[in-house]
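Onboarding guide, step 5: your first structure request.
Type a short instruction followed by the sequence, for example:

Predict the 3D structure of this protein.
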Amino acid sequence: MNRLLLDTSFLVDIERGGEDLHGAVLDEDDAAIAAVVVAELEAGVHLTDDRHRARRRAFVDQVVEELPVIPYDLAVAREHGRLLAHTRRSGRPRGQLDLVIAATAAASGRQVVSADVGAFDDLPGVALLGG
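The system replies with structure tokens like these:
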């Protein structure tokens, strides 16, 4: 069983491709999302046009109902600070929300699943599925 943390880009690809959430995540896997992923998905609901909003709302509601949401707590904040310092030292900046997702994965012992692997590769202590 893999302990997975699903990134926003992975979930958006599922939704856009019309895939079933269960089909994309194996039943034997322990999948979750970071709280910040909910914010990113909610922004997508509010930014889409009227003809896609209901479908996108239904998908986001399904994700939130079926996957545990890991909060930004003290352990995540400490990992976030560590990763932020690393990216500044290395000269390879990353998106702030991607760093929160990476920190959540590191703090919870999960592997990141993302369609944007470059946002997470080479971050110390952050495991990527297949990476």
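Each response can be followed by summary notes, for example: Residues 45 and 53 are 6 Å apart (CA to CA).
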